[in-house]
Write the structure tokens for this entry.
Amino acid sequence: MSGGNGHGPLVQLSAKDFKTDQEVRWCPGCGDYAILAAMQSFMPELGVPRERTVFVSGIGCAARFPYYMQTYGMHSIHGRAPAIATGLATSRPDLSVWVVTGDGDALSIGGNHLIHALRRNVNLKILLFNNQIYGLTKGQYSPTSEVGKVTKSTPMGSLDYPFNPVSLAIGAEATFVARSIDTDRKHLTEVLRRAATHRGTAFVEIYQNCNIFNDGAFDVVKEQKENQIRLEHGQPIRFGAEGERGVRQRADGSCELVDVAEAGALLVHDEHQVHSSLAFALSRLAHTPEGPTPIGIFRDVERPVYDELMAEQLEAASESRGKGDLGELLHAGDTWTIA
Amino acid sequence: MNPKTVEQLDQVTIRFAGDSGDGMQLTGARFTSETAQLGNDLSTLPDFPAEIRAPAGSLPGVSGFQIHFADHDILTPGDQPNVLVAMNPAALRTNLRDLPLGGTLIVNRDAFTDRNLEKAGYTSNPLEDGSVAEYQVHAVPLTSMTLEALKEIDVSKREAERAKNMFALGLMSWLYTRPLEGTVASIERKFAKRPEIVQANVTALRAGYAFGETTEGFATQYEVRPAPLPPGTYRNITGNQAIALGLVAASVQSGLAVYLGAYPITPASEILETLAGYKHFGVRTFQAEDEIAAAGAALGASFGGALGITTSSGPGIVLKQEVIGLAVTLELPLVILDIQRAGPSTGMPTKPEQADLLNVLFGRNSESPVPVVAASTPGGCFDAAIEACRIALKYRTPVFCLSDAYLANGSEPWLIPDPATLPDISTAFAEQADHEGAFMPYLRDVQTLARPWAIPGTPGLEHRIGGLEKADGTGNVSYDPDNHDYMVRVRAQKVAGIAADIPELEVDHDEGADLLVLGWGGTYGPIASAVRRVRKTGGKVAQAHLTHLNPFPANTGGVLRSYDRVLVPEMNLGQLLKLVRAEFLVDAVGYNRVRGMPFSSAELGEAIEGLL
Ligand code: SF4
């Protein structure tokens, strides 16, 4: 991949070039460490110069991420990162802009910004670290916590029905939607690679363990690999220890889990299907990660990119009307002169 | 037919009022344009309902447009009309109380049907029951005469009827000797694709003019001579148009592209719409999902090196305050335009008020100083917008620029400035390390206390900023007590220091005056005209008007203390009053009305006289 920056020959960077001098302050054992390490080692491969890379975050444990990346960065306010990043990305299409967010930040206080960023298809890479809990505020339930979750703010169990972030993103017209796991370096890196090269908004949900307030929330999927339904483009969807289970599409379009031995044709995954129904149906296989759960790229389609369209309109306007002349603009319309 | 006499007037105020569907705004705008072409000084104020189309003929559906024009310089759209043009009973009912006894009343007699009278709440016809006996009434069958004039033209009856506003405009143009050419040309432009509509409107316009000439009902034609305005090229401009032009000018003068984040809101939407048409100036407009995102996107663009701007009115400003607080601590430029309207909450969306001042100053968490600039006149919105951008860029700070619904929609002739005379507001981005080979994002300029602005794409200056408190210099996250105390103070000091970089408060002193009238923002016209009125009768009064409300001009305290009494008229319950009393320990008094209407110079004149 090329990544010339116009300021001289590209120096091959390594993971340590993306580390800052700031002490990383997450709890020992937090899943965020693994994601940070994966990102730092993946960045050099991307070939985008550090000065052209920007991480924008909101508030929450995950939101500290930019402080640890030796790139440009902004740790902003709760939920607003997609909006701020949209302004940056649409005014500076030359930049690679990443949003790091959490389940509370993206889906609760910032839900509106998230869905609109997704539908616009601004050139943003949105990484949602989902730990199904509010970590920074010390353990209240989040919009992805399971119903009945007992936390400090829900002593008798939470009443809220959770969001499935992947379903939400697909419903919000996202053009790239994926899910990965904090500690699965190989899988995570591959998903990040694909997200980085996607034109438009890429949304990646990362299962992230909060070992302090919600330890083991994803263990059913993380530790029991037979529960990982790995989506691979063009392949029949199979999972289980021996690949003995699979996914079949019902006549009504929804998906079901079947035993391969008994099933007829399995569903063949197609990331590029224009209609989002298939990706959505796959996302419904597991509303929360309590059993077999799809992992990988649900959807990767092309749609015009907002910032490119915006730049094109500016160019078209300059071409048809000539580059703006201030004197002319001030004199537009009815004028009269007094001698 | 008797020959008509021509009478000279020094000034006239006309109000056009009709149903929302009667085209009163267009009629008023065309009359304004004709008047401007004649070289009169003028000031206009539209008054339209918030509802897009209230039921036809109803009281809430009345739309008005007032124009005050004169052979001398004037400051307001006029307290009361001399002439009221009422296109239907509802318009008569809602506006008649403003017409002084003896004033001229021109009504569309055809619209005074039983049904319309009932919708307006009249139990008998006011044209016949003596209610308008004390006015000079001209009951003209505008609709039927328009239909008659257009009977040869191939348009529907409905379309023909709609041309009655042009008939009325033609009549008024004759009455006040205004030329029609500009209106004809504008109709031709507007309906270029529908020649029959052009013909209908132009015919109605000319028929109205001819009616004035021939009817015996109007014996006198009036002339208002051109005003001796300073030489130069003029255009008529509203406050919102002036802001849009000012922002483009600020972009040109700074060399930075405008990035406007906005969410539609009355009365600010027009700025978004206008700027969206200036893409050939590299202007990016982003209609966001909400007010918060609008401000956030503008701040994100600022981080990337654009001139980040967000526009709104009070209900949107309260939502943006969170992002503005972030901009305070990030120390990035951001210009926030607040086109104030009556509140609280949704309030009266189309009506002006000045009650956001304390909110923009103090409506954020913690110590969060933001400079504030306020426009005084529609044309002055141009300069206020540039000044807000200048301060934002130079001091790397969010800046509020205040206007209001009165300035936004009111218009006046504007002497078009020569771009060469506009201030250079360019600023430099950081390009290299500033401290022992490293880049310190919070190492301040010793003079302005502004921090360096290093934009993404600059190699070697990669840095992280955020909403957490930062260590002085390095910008790293810091919880150090003394550092926080220092940073809070230095942010305050930076904003306070701007006082040395803005013009002093000018006083229009009157020899012997011991009363000062201090105003700010959109009340300038009414206050100045009230001061003139008082002086004409021998009253001694001084006037000063603030365009910078944070910080105040350096001499403000001195000016206030040099008068025995200070009167502060505001369209709020005393917000500037509170500030000057607290800041300067002067025993100022307020004159406060919150009626969603500009002050009249008569009421302010009385308030001033009461203190003499
Ligand atoms: S609270 Fe949880 S999410 Fe936050 S840093 Fe600690 S372990 Fe990580």
Remarks:
- The longest strand of chain B covers residues 11-19.
- Residues 5-223 of chain B form a domain with the Pyruvate-ferredoxin Oxidoreductase; domain 3 fold (CATH 3.40.920.10).
